[in-house]
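Appendix C reproduces, verbatim, an entry submitted by the partner laboratory led by Prof. M.T., so that reviewers can inspect both the input and the predicted structure.
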Amino acid sequence: MSKPSLLDRLASLETTSVSDALDFLKLPGATVGLRPLWNCPKIVGRASTVQLGRKTDEAPTAHLISPVIAAIQTTDRVLVVAGGVDGISCWGDILANASKVKGVRGTVIDGMSRDIDGSESIGYSVYGRGITMVSARNRVVQIASATPVQMAGVTVRENDYVLADRCGSVFIPAERIEEVIALAERITRREDGMVEAVRNGRSVEDVMHDKEFEAIKVEVQP
């Protein structure tokens, strides 16, 4: 039997465990506020980054994000879109359908979406700050792609790893992915054991004592 891939292992985890692993390793990555915009499935994949900004002239441009979608050639991609403007959409139904056709796994936007029913109707996962009706056309443009972007204060680079679920969105540096996954798996096993201990009647005061969590730190000391 072949070993599970890194993406399969990451998909088996929750953002909470990955966030804890990043904390233990003193790495940024967990965000606040980038949540599912409909009751959508978890997203797990590699980042294709897009930087947006306000439109400052009247010149016609390609619709934001569409060139990035058109260029995607693999099925491991998650669109990571930064630079959204409050109250203005940077995602919608047509982009969702184009992404679905290309095999994109989902989109995380540091901004807002409209036409969210369209994304839901095709089962396309969208995470972000909220929903609006206001179009991006002539208001927001794409500035760059495949460059480092800021997502809720976290720097995300092309090909970094993305995990998003009902608790929010977390980003993992590509060069640390194996270390983070291994630690998050260890944390998950330990916390599963703590839940089982409580169910079996052990005092929650003992189970939740700081020393139980400190034990995880001891396990990861070099």
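Residues 28-172 form a domain with the Glucose Oxidase; domain 1 fold (CATH 3.50.30.40). Additional entries are available on request from the coordinating office.
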